[in-house]
Amino acid sequence: MSASVIFHWKGPDNKPFQGEGVTRDISVAGAFVLTATCPPPNAAVQMEVLLPPLDGASKAWMKADMTVLRVEHNIVGNKRSGFSAVGKGFSLRTLSKQTLRLIADPIKDSEETVEGQE
Question: Using CA atoms, how far apart are residues 32 and 50, in angstroms rounded to an integer?
Answer without folding.
Answer: 14
